[in-house]
Amino acid sequence: MRYEGPIYRPPSEADSLLIQATVGCPHNKCTFCMVYKKGPKYRVRPAEEVVADLKAARAAYGSRIRTIFFPAGNTIAAPVETLEAVFKAACRIFPELERITVYGSSRYILEKGEEGLRRLSAACLTRIHVGLESGNEAVLADIKKGAARADQIRAGQMLKAAGIENSSYVMLGIGGKNLSTAHATDTAAALNEIAPEYVRLRTFVPKKATPLLRRVEKGDFAMCGPHEILEETRRLVENLEIASSLRSDHYTNYINLSGELPEDKDRMRRQLDDALKRPESSFRPFFVGTQ
User: Fold this and answer.
1) Do 192 and 240 touch, CB atoms closer than 8 A?
2) 76-130, pLDDT tens digit by residue?
3) Shortest CA distance to 12 belongs to which of 253, 244, 268, 247?
C-alpha cells in the first residue's frame, strides 16, 4: 500500500482501513488549515493503483476490515467514474464491508450533482465527512472556505436526497470574539436546514504556517477563551432543532459533549452550565503560541 503526503482521518475512523484515493486538497485555501500548505499538490490516483492497494490490504488483513476511509483532503473532488470504480472494487474485495467514507467539502459535493451522488451512493459510499465549519456568511468568507452559506445548505440537502450520511464538522471559535454569537446562531440555523446525521464539534486552535495564525499573532483576530467557547457551544445547542447525533470527539475541545438530539439537549445544556462554573484556569490554555 502506497501513501504520499500527510494522512489525516477523523477520530471516528480510527478502526478503518486507510487507502489513499487522492493526494492533497484541490482547494487548499482555508486560512485555518495547515495540512497541505507545503504540498503535495492535489492529484487523483489512478483507479487501478487504488484497487491494487485494496487487494494488498485484503492479503494483509483478510476479512477483519469492516470500514474503509479514503483520504486525502477532499476525496469527493475526484471524478465520479474514478470513485465509482474504487468503491465498487472495495465492496468486491471486502464483501464484509459495512461502511465507506471520505472527506468532502460542499463545493465539490455540489460539483458531483444529484445524479453523481446517487451513483456514488449506489457504489457503496456510505458517509461523507463535511467541513461545514460555520453557517455564517461573513465567517465563511473570512476563512476562505470556498463555499457560501447557501452552498453548504444545498450540498447537505443533496447528500440527504442521495441517501449518503452527512457528518458535519463545526469549528467553535472560528468567528473570533466579534462574530461568536452570529457564528453560533447562523450555524445552528444552517444545520437545521441540512439535518445531518452527525454534528461534530472542533475548537479552533491556531496552527503553524497558516494565515489565521499570523492574524492571531498580529492581534487582527481576537480568539475566544474557554468560557466564550462554552457559551458559544451552548448557544449552538440551544438553537438546534434536528434529530442528530452530536459528538465532541476531538482533543481541541474543552469538554466532551456528546448526545442524541433532541432527547439529550437538556442534559447537554446542564453539562455546559456546570463547565461554565469552573474557573477558566482549569481548562487548557486557549493559545500558547504556535501549535
Assistant:
1) yes
2) 999 999 999 999 999 999 999 999 999 999 999 999 999 999 999 999 999 999 9
3) 247
**CB-based contacts of 267, cutoff 8 Å, min separation 6:** 259
Sequence-distant (6+) residues with CB within 8 A of 111 are: 77
Q: How far is CA 274 from CA 49, 65, 126, 267, in A?
A: 52, 41, 37, 11
CATH match for 11-282 among 3.40.50.300, 3.40.50.720, 3.30.1330.10, 3.20.20.70? 3.20.20.70
Number of Cβ atoms within 10 Å of the Cβ of 66:
13
pLDDT in tens, 255-266: 999 999 999 999
Rounded (5°) CA angle 72-77-83: 85
